[in-house]
Amino acid sequence: MIPRIATYRLQFREGMTFDKAVDLIPYLQQLGVSHLYASPVFTAAPGSTHGYDIADFNEVEPGLGGFDGLRRLAAALRDAGMGLILDIVPNHMAASPVNHWWRDVAEWGRDATHAGHFDIDWTRKLTLPVLGDTLDNVLANGDIRLRVDAECRGLVLAYHDHAYPLTPPSYGLLAEQDAATGVLTRLADRAAKASPQNAQGFHAAMREMLTAVGVAPSSALDAANADRAFLRRLHDAQPWEFTNWRDARHTLSYRRFFEVTGLVGTRVEDPVVFDDAHRLVLDLVRQGLVDGLRVDHVDGLTDPAAYLRRLRDAAGQDCWIVVEKILEGAETLPPDWPVDGTTGYEFIAAMSDLLLAQRGSSAMQASYENVTDTSPVAAQRETAKHRIVTHNFAGELSRVTDLLLPFADGLDYSALQDALVALVVALPVYRTYGDVSGFSDADRAILEDAATLAGDAAEPRALNVLLQALGHAEAAEGRIRFQQLSGPVMAKAVEDTLFYRHTAILAVNEVGCDPVTPPAGITAVHATLAARARLQPYALNATATHDTKRGEDARARLYTLAEWPDRWTSGVRRWRDWHKGHVLGDAPEAATAWGLYQALAGVWPKDPPDAAALSSLAERFMPYVVKALREAKLRTDWTNTDETYEQRVCAYAAHLLDPGNARFIADFHDTIAPFIAVGEQRALSQLLLKLTAPGVPDIYQGSEGGDFSLVDPDNRRSPDWDRLDRLLTGAVWPPKADAAKSFVLSRAIAARRVNPELFAKGHYEPLIVTGAKAEAIFAFERRLGDHVAVTLAQVRSLPPSAEKGAFWGDTAISFSGNCPPLTSAFSGRRHQTGTLALADWLENSEHPLNVDLLASFPV
Question: Are 664 and 578 in contact (CB under 8 A)?
Fold first, then answer.
């Protein structure tokens, strides 16, 4: 087994192929990582930029290099002493005919071979939410056409680019449109002999017949397409129906991924479906080509624990398995999950608790509420969750209500649904994990506490009856659907709504974080990391992913706003006053403007920007503005766009980056200059903590060169690999500012490589910091036997001092046990024994490299 030192996340597609990744291996070797961590590599929907819309679980994407390319990459990694981790997506697939399982279901309905592979409500037709209007209007406009399938496998009904196959039993209707050629009659005769079991033969016969008549029996099809009534009858004869995409939240007949109707839920709880969906990836694991699996969106599954047990049994004990799971507050992974840990969102939350100043964040929150006249964030979260569950997930809510109603002890539909809404809104975690046998004691306690919190929003009796119904032995499907509803509601309400509405401190509006709860501080973070050492030593430590709302360096910079909240607040007041002439109507509102200035501060260039830099920034910033407005769902959203409002806010934002707005640009830069400087130091502290705390550090592509990205798609841009290589080559002591991250990263990973057992299994111990400036330092040791590694990081700003010794004064580290001689992994300096005086190890005030890693072994 390859030691788990550090992972490096690569986003395949958008120019990144397997052969390109092979070319990067020497760089990754020099960086020191042990595993390449790949985004999904299986065949996805055409044009996919991310790979999570999988069309074929058992084919490697040809555009990336196919199976042969993946094998070359795995072999090259192995030769370099590195391993490969694949991101797998068991919860959903592309709801598109390019997915042959989905096409099979559309063609044969509930009789299809793959009908049980998807989470579909077969009490009604399969809904296909592709229309931009009602079916009647679309037919009247001639937008639905009968045509030959692109591969001549049969006939399809097409609405623009959406083409779905006719079910063979419906071909009998074609004879009435066959006045001259007889082609449609012959197709109907052949279709009459078809069945799901001989579908391949049917498609082959169709291909032969259609090719023989010149592919397209145009005259017959023209006649059919001219008859709107006939097209309606033909449509109605299908096991599916075209519907308006705007109605999907009410009418969808299949489980989707969040609100994405283009992603259909899979039923991997069925052993047959599990085997079909994992055949290739498990072969790759068994062949030794793949060393680990990252399980996407585990909370979407019917029974995550059962799925993970099956996966572990199939993949073996040596396979490194981590799950994408957001843990809320003190929540921990269920103890019966046979995994190595999470993908690390809770580590981001720990950094937020540590690097965001408690007093300053409270002051910023108060100023924000005063300036913007908004309600408290806790109330906003409740409002957002209520809106999402009752509006965006109205269909899913109705289905859960229907399933639980027979067990609801006389409650009427309305009272039960009100109780459901109140419980989902009050639930403090993404979901519980009840199965067919009921809930665990821990889950029952969570639900009971949530019901107590929901007491003001629903009748107490209704809530009690709801809890009883959820736990009823025969209510398994209702229990499961409830759990598959609460997770998406939390995600969409908090991550994709509240984070864009409440803009007081954008640094905490991050996946895994909770803007409602103030930062916990140093003592609590020590406890969190100690627990991580016990419970998740092989979980990933993440500070940036393809799903985070902003880059790790942008977030580190924004943490520092709370160090001088008055400076930031007065700046916002000043800038809003200067630009009040650019507020059209009430757009942007005060809260939106506050968020715009803060988002801009996170990505602002280190040096004063010229016209070219402003133009480049605008290209990235303006799409972010539109996304932020739509995700907030206050005045505009993705389904009901208010273009006038968006244009007004965008015009305001564009003016901020207009080179002609020189007074603002100069003042903005001067105002945030201290935040930029301190942010560089905090970014290094954050990085070193990720590299040495319990868990396995995960490096997101390009972040070692500075990550000031905005939310996707900005954070999925391809890095400048040549620049990164130059930075790493120049990462020597003392490092230049632009190479500091590469220096810290490579030196700390090298220390992990020398002593992997220490960082994997070593005891975590907070170190006692004494002296006048103790509050500015976070320090801990990892200890295993005689081996010790000590991490020092500045986490608070302090008044500067001209003299190095005078700045740190008597601030020192005391060790709880015997301290062997230590050597800095960065400077090579040695500390013999006893108390460690910070004046000897750290620089003056806000020097970027106010971090150090000392070890008792050669580094």
Answer: yes
Contact 89, 39 (CB under 8 A): no
Structure tokens at 353: 């608790």
> 851 Cβ partners below 8 Å, 6+ apart?
681, 684, 685, 688, 744, 791, 792, 793, 794, 826, 842
Beta-sheet strand order (sheet of 777-784): 763-766, 777-784, 787-794, 851-855, 822-824, 830-831
For residues 506-540, one letter each, b for 16 or more C-beta atoms within 10 angstroms of the residue's C-beta and e for the rest, the string is bbbbbbbbbbbeebbebeebbebbbebbeebbbbb
Written as six digits, the tokens of 825 are 């992994």
Cβ neighbourhood burial of 47 (10 Å; 0-12, 13-18, 19+):
exposed
Give residue 556's pLDDT.
Answer: 98
Q: Is pLDDT of 218 > 80?
A: no
What amino acid is encoded at 690 in this protein?
K
d(CA 298, CA 430): 11
Separation of alpha carbons 42 and 301, rounded Å:
20
Distance CA 73, CA 271 (A): 31
Q: Which residues contact 75 (CB under 8 A, 6 or more apart)?
A: 289
- What is the model's pLDDT at position 178? 66
CB under 8 Å to 775, separation ≥6 — which residues? 522, 796
192, 103 contact by CB (below 8 A): no
Instruction: Fill in the amino acid letter for 726.
Output: R
Residue with tokens 């002591």: 733
The beta strand positions in 90-177, using DSSP E, are: 92-94, 126-131, 144-148, 155-159, 162-165
Q: In what order do the strands lie in the sheet with 35-38?
A: 341-342, 320-323, 292-295, 83-88, 35-38, 7-10, 696-700, 540-541
Q: What are phi and psi for residue 74, nearest 5 degrees?
A: -60, -40
Task: Report the C-alpha gap between 184 and 223 in whole angstroms.
Answer: 11
Give every CB contact of residue 611 below 8 A, 6+ residues apart in sequence.
659
Residues 6+ positions from 445 with CB-CB distance below 8 Å: none
Q: Where are the alpha helices (DSSP H) in 693-784?
A: 721-729, 740-754, 756-761
What are the tens digits of pLDDT across the range 670-710? 999 999 999 999 999 999 999 999 999 999 999 999 999 99
Output phi, psi for 720, to 5 deg.
-85, 90
Q: Going by C-beta distance under 8 Å and a sequence separation of 6 or more, which residues neighbour residue 223?
A: 177, 179
CA distance 213 to 683: 67
Alpha carbon dihedral 99, 100, 101, 103, in 10-degree steps, equals 90
The continuous run of DSSP H or E covering 242 comes out as: strand 240-244
Name the residue with higher pLDDT: 843 or 394. 394
Count other Cβ atoms within 10 Å, centred on residue 56. 17
pLDDT above 70: residue 179: no
Specify the pairing of strand 822-824 against strand 851-855.
antiparallel
Please determine, for residue 214, whether its predicted confidence score (pLDDT) is greater than 90: no
Closest CA to 304 of 442, 435, 461: 435
Torsion angles phi and psi, residue 475, rounded to 5: -100, 30
CA distance 503 to 662: 26
Q: Is 775 exposed, middle or buried (0-12, 13-18, 19+ CB in 10 A)?
A: middle
So what's the pLDDT on residue 185? 86
Distance CA 664, CA 604 (A): 13
Alpha helices in 693-732 (DSSP H): 721-729
CA 851 to each of CA 477, 766, 847: distance values in angstroms, whole numbers, following the listed order:
52, 16, 9
Average pLDDT over residues 3-10: 98
Task: Please answer whether residues 299 and 430 qualify as being in contact, where contact means their C-beta atoms are separated by less than 8 angstroms.
Answer: yes
